[in-house]
Structure formats: C-alpha cells, structure tokens
Write a structure and sequence with these properties.
The complex is a heterodimer of chains A (70) and B (453). Chain A has 70 residues and is mainly α. Chain A has helices spanning 13-26, 33-57. Chain A is extended and about 40 Å long. Chain B is of the alpha/beta class. Chain B is 41% helix and 13% strand. Chain B has 15 helices and eleven strands. Chain B has an eleven-stranded mixed beta sheet with strand order 1-3-2-4-6-5-10-11-9-7-8. In chain B, helix 2 (23-41) packs antiparallel against helix 3 (49-64), helix 7 (221-232) packs antiparallel against helix 15 and helix 10 (289-314) crosses helix 12. The N and C termini of chain B lie close together (11 Å). The chains are: A mainly alpha (70), B alpha/beta (453).
C-alpha cells in the first residue's frame, strides 16, 4: 500500500495533498503547488503497482545482502 | 576540423606501442576537439586541461623509460559528474552542488590513475541522475552528435556524447535503470552496466544504493572491456565466453510493448544474425513488466528521497523543477512498499536463475525508440525502460552495442545481458556481434562533418 493508496488514485486530490503535506512536514520539507501536483500525478502509477507487488511477493522473507558484499 | 588521430582506447594503445603517437599528442588533440565542438555539444561540465597535459607528459616519460601500465596508459578519458575527481567539485548536474568544495578521488578513479589513464574532466548529466533537463536551467542539456536537434538520452548524457563525438577515448557513466545503455543506444556507442559492485560506487553520488552501477562507455567493445578492467582494478574480467551462446529472447515482452518499426526491425535482424551464427534461440518468460517497474520505482523513489531528504527540505529552490518533483514523489511510498520491492528482487533472481539454466545470454532491444527530438522530448518524455531496468534489479551485466540505424540515420542498439558474474561472456558475445555487423567505428558528422577519427 502506498501513502497515496489509502486515499486512492481516484479520491479527492485534497485528501492526497493533505497526506503528502503531513509526511513532508515530518522531514521539514516545504512543498509548493507544483510539487504537490507532481506528487499527485506520480502517485497514480505506484498506487496500483505497489498493491500488485504486495500480492506477488507472498510470504517471501526480506533478504538483504550482508555487510561484506560490495 | 579533421584529424588522423583515432580517439579510441585500443587504437591509442596501439599507436603508443608503435611510437606513432604519444599521450601528449592524444590529450592535446582531445582538448582541441573539446574546444572546437563542445560549445554546441555541451558534453563536459568541467575540464582539467592543465592537469591532464601534465599527467600525459608523465605517462609519456614512463613509456620512454619502458614502463607500460596496460591498455589505458596515457589514454584520455572522462567521468560523469556524479563521480569524484580530486580537486574538482562533484556538481551532479545541480545548482545545489555547483559551489561545493573540491572532492577526493572516487575509488574507481584511483583505479583509473593506477592504470595510467589521463582524466580530462567531468561529463554533463541529468540532475542527480533523474531530473530531466529543462530550457533555461543549468546545466544546458547535452546534444546528440548524430543530430543536434535530438536528445542524447540520459542520465549519462554527456558521457555518451563525448565518446560518440570522439572528444575522449572513453568515459564512465552510472546506470540505475538504463542510464548508460539508453544514451549508448541513442548515440551509437557501446555502453555497459557491469555486474553490481564490479566497479566500486565509493565516491560516486548515489541515486539508489541498491540499483546504482558504474560502467564504461566506448566506441568499441574492446575499448569498453579495457575501460572496465582499468576501473575495476581487475586483470581478468570474470565470466568465460561461450561460443556460440544459447540466446534467450523475451518474446512476450517484445510483443507487449510498442516499439518504433525500425527498432523492431533492427532487433529482428540481430536475432537472425545470432541464429545464422549457430546460436539456439529460445523464447523466455521474464518477470511481469508492471511489477518490475513498480519495484524499480519504489526502490528509486524511496532511496532517492532518503539521499536528498535534508537538502531537499532545506533548499528546494536550488533543485531543478524535474529533479525536485521526481524526488518529492518518493513521499508516496510507505516503508512496506519499499520492503516489498526489495522482496520482489527474489522473484526476479529466481526467474532469471531458471532462464539462465536454459540460455547463456539474453538478447533484447535497449529502448522502444530512437533518440527523439528535443521538442518531442519536452512534450512527452519517454519514461519506460522495459528492457533495461530488470537487469538493475538483478545486478547483472548488460551491454548496449550498436546494431543499425533508422531511416533518418539515427543509431539503434541492442542489449546483450547475462547472469551476474558473466561480464566476460557478455563482452565476448558483443565483440562477436560487432565484428559480424561492422557498425562499430561509424562517426557522427553533424559537427561540420569533421569528426573523422
């Protein structure tokens, strides 16, 4: 699930913007209207894709390489 | 401007060996060509002319005393301006880093110096490896030497242009989803993303620690092999050649995407050439494109945002519009999205383990189209990398090698990829393809028809 997905790609942009603003504020990021528009647009693709990813990985564990791997 | 100096790695090494040319001759010639042509090509962001000449004199002195460091000795090369060179800032193509203090050499640059390479300077790029160039923003975008109205591709744009226009003998780019191979295809040169970690990324500005690869770009496969050996510090590139290789083709994916007809035709001709060369051609099923793209976007989005979080928060106005928007878009991913994308890499590993039990190498197009005009690009920038990105998830070697031209005379590459660690096998097959087709060594003529090498 993406941050954009719990409001859904088809939901009111204001909801999505509020969510993005709250996440950005956590990191002290200032967002202007252009950024918000771009993030809203960008959220449409990952929203569908990441939900499919969650289904595709099933119960696989997360495997990260050990520290010595370059 | 015409010159009889062949600005290629192996050509120069041969000329130094027979005494017909010296490193100072070649370095001065490279700097002359940059002076003459880079005003319109815009492939360099920073030059170190005096240091390069000094290093060329030292290489010449070493050669005269009988010391030979190998095929890169005295050869003028460049690096993408995401890679640190001692005494220069690493701008990453961003105003936000333009006034940064000078850096120390990246690890791969230290290897290049030990191999005797002459470092000419830093190549232009897309901002931080992902921000699309925009008119009026610094740096002005590099231009394709085959047609100045067309883009060279990115993000290793300047590296591809400088090599294609013979302004240097070779260059190094970085590739997170196709940023070496795309520009190589658009500019008619050879570009390689080696196995993950074969060339160190230490001292290179990250976009995604998981997916970033540093790789060589040259005018021939032999040049690229020499550049790879020099930058990795390896005497022998791993991965034994197979002759003729069993070749896998992602037929379903090729049918699924929309390619320009000349790109499709060039790929079909390449498959037929391998068939005539004795290769068994097998159709293989690669992981689902939508899932692969989703994983790439989630990893680049999350890691890219993490790289830039503090500076993007404190000085967003110093980022170009596209880089700022694309990095900020990483905010939409949750921690679970990122973890799932990393877990999905296992799906990719397992799929390709099965594929590489049946075939030795994979053959595919590089891009869906030839280099678009700048106007087309500004209207509708190509954003899909269906053939290249999966090899970043896999950390596997993949080479773009020239395979032909479209009706307008723009170059088209094909991609030869292998399992992780099969870099030598992929290079040997690319060299065979290059010999069979004869596309290597063709030079663009748009800069006054003078770039004869």
């Amino acid at each position: 699930m993406t941050a954009g997905e719990d409001v859904g790609p088809g939901s009111a942009p204001a909801d999505l913007e509020a969510l993005i603003r709250s996440v950005a504020a956590r990191y002290g990021m200032r967002l202007d209207v252009t950024d918000l528009g771009a993030v809203s647009r960008a959220s449409e693709r990952p929203s569908a894709g990441t939900a499919a990813l969650a289904r595709a990985v099933g119960d696989r564990p997360l495997r990260l390489p050990p520290r010595h791997v370059p | 401007m015409t010159s009889q100096i062949a600005m290629g790695v192996t050509d120069l090494a041969r000329a130094y060996a027979d005494g017909s040319l010296s490193p100072v001759d070649a370095t001065e010639e490279a700097l002359r060509r940059i002076e003459a042509h880079d005003g319109e090509l815009r492939s360099f962001l920073g030059l170190r002319a005096e240091e390069a000449i000094r290093e060329a004199r030292e290489a010449e002195r070493e050669m005269r005393s009988g010391q030979r460091r190998g095929p890169l000795h005295g050869v003028p090369v460049a690096v993408k301006d995401l890679i640190d060179i001692d005494g220069m800032p690493t701008t990453a193509g961003s105003v936000s880093r333009r006034d940064d203090p000078p850096r120390r050499d990246a690890e791969m640059v230290r290897h290049l110096r030990r191999a005797g390479a002459i470092l000419l300077g830093k190549n232009n790029l897309y901002e931080f490896g992902l921000g699309l160039p925009s008119d009026g923003e610094w740096p002005a975008a590099a231009r394709n030497p085959w047609d100045l109205d067309r883009i060279p591709g990115g993000s290793s744009s300047g590296s591809a242009v400088a090599v294609s226009a013979r302004l240097c003998a070779g260059s190094f780019g970085t590739d997170t989803g196709g940023s070496i191979r795309g520009p190589a295809s658009y500019c008619g040169i050879v570009g390689m993303k080696p196995t993950y970690g074969l060339i160190s990324t230490t001292g290179c500005m990250a976009l995604s620690w998981t997916l970033d690869h540093v790789g060589p770009m040259g005018n021939t496969v032999d040049d690229v092999a020499a550049l790879l050996a020099g930058a990795s510090g390896l005497d022998v590139i791993p991965g034994a050649p197979t002759r003729p290789p069993r070749v896998g083709v992602p037929s379903t994916l090729v049918e699924q995407v929309t390619m320009e007809p000349d790109v499709a035709r060039t790929f079909e001709e390449a498959v037929r050439l391998f068939e005539r060369g004795g290769s068994a051609i097998r159709s293989v099923e690669v992981p689902d494109l939508e899932l692969t793209e989703a994983a790439l976007l989630a990893i680049i989005g999350s890691e890219g945002l993490a790289v830039h979080l503090s500076t993007l928060g404190s000085m967003p106005e110093r980022y170009g519009r596209s880089a700022r928007e694309r990095l900020t878009a990483g905010l939409v991913y949750t921690g679970a999205d990122y973890v799932n994308a990393m877990r999905y890499r296992d799906v990719v590993f397992e799929a390709f383990e099965r594929i590489y039990e049946e075939v030795d190498l994979m053959l595919s197009p590089v891009t869906l189209q030839v280099a678009p005009t700048n106007a087309e690009f500004q209207r509708n920038p190509p954003h899909r990398t269906p053939f290249t990105g999966v090899h970043n998830l896999l950390g596997a070697p993949a080479i773009s090698v020239p395979a032909g031209f479209d009706r307008a005379g723009m170059p088209i590459g094909i991609q030869i990829a292998g399992p992780p660690g099969a870099d030598g096998r992929a290079l040997a097959t690319a060299a065979w393809f290059e010999r069979e087709t004869g596309w290597a060594g063709r030079t663009p003529a748009v800069t006054g028809g003078g770039l004869v090498s």
